[in-house]
Amino acid sequence: MHDDIKKISVSEQEIKEIVKRLGTSISKDFAGKKPLFIGLLKGCIPFMSDLLKYVDIECTMEYMKVSSYDGTKSTGCVKVDGKTPDVLGREVILIDDILDTGRTLDSVKKLLFEAGAKSVTICVLLDKPEGRVVDITPAYVGGLVPNEFVVGYGLDYNEIYRNLPYIGVLKEEVYKK
């Protein structure tokens, strides 16, 4: 599995520092509030789990299963599986592993506002601005990555590589077979 990685983009230690920084910032910005964290499955799991260890305020959490990728390509169609969490009057912090085209986060943000969210704040581990096709800006960004296909720490290629402790660039020969 590690042999499929061309290079490491974000090391395990860098991820730990990013998560701590983001959790501390969110705690400061949402002090005295009780936000609802909503993680977008499946990629958010390691990030959200680690992030919440550094969030030092009262909060609750939910998950939404959302998909828009097939292999390495965005389908352009955002699919929400299941029920939308109860967000009526809540301040929501939307957690995702990566912001690429922006379609998924934009669609979910609109859906949450339609469901009555008071506010929706986006927090992503990684931002890939070169891939953006929708005008959306997250409030919290762990780091920027170039327009390469990255996997690890929740990010996958056909459901594989999510368990890598770092984020790496997948070799092209792996996904261009």
Topology record:
Blueprint: E1 5-10, H1 12-29, E2 36-41, H2 45-52, E3 60-70, E4 73-81, E5 91-99, H3 103-114, E6 119-127, E7 140-144, E8 150-151, E9 167-170, H4 172-175
Parallel strand pairs: 2-3, 2-5, 5-6, 6-7
Antiparallel strand pairs: 1-9, 3-4, 8-9
Helix pairs in contact: 1-2
Report a brief summary of the structure.
With 177 residues, this protein is of the alpha/beta class.
CATH-derived topology: Rossmann fold
Mean pLDDT: 93
Shape: globular
- By DSSP, the count of extended strands is 9
Oligomer: single chain
**CATH architecture verdict:** 3-Layer(aba) Sandwich
Strand order of the largest sheet: 4-3-2-5-6-7
Order of helices and strands: EHEHEEEHEEEEH
The share of residues in extended strands comes to 25-35%
In the predicted model, the low-confidence regions spanning at least 5 consecutive residues are none
- Supply the number of helical segments: 4
Cα gyration radius (Å): 16 Å
Largest sheet: 6 strands, mixed
Question: Can you put this structure into words, describing what you see?
Answer:
The protein is an alpha/beta fold and 177 residues long. The chain has one domain (12-146): 3-Layer(aba) Sandwich (Rossmann fold). It is 24% helix and 34% strand. It is built from four helices and nine strands, in the order βαβαβββαββββα. It has helices at 12-29, 45-52, 103-114, 172-175, and strands at residues 5-10, 36-41, 60-70, 73-81, 91-99, 119-127, 140-144, 150-151, 167-170. The strands form two sheets. A six-stranded mixed sheet has the order 4-3-2-5-6-7, sandwiched between helices. Strand 2 (36-41), helix 2 (45-52) and strand 3 form a beta-alpha-beta unit. The radius of gyration is 16 Å and the shape is globular.
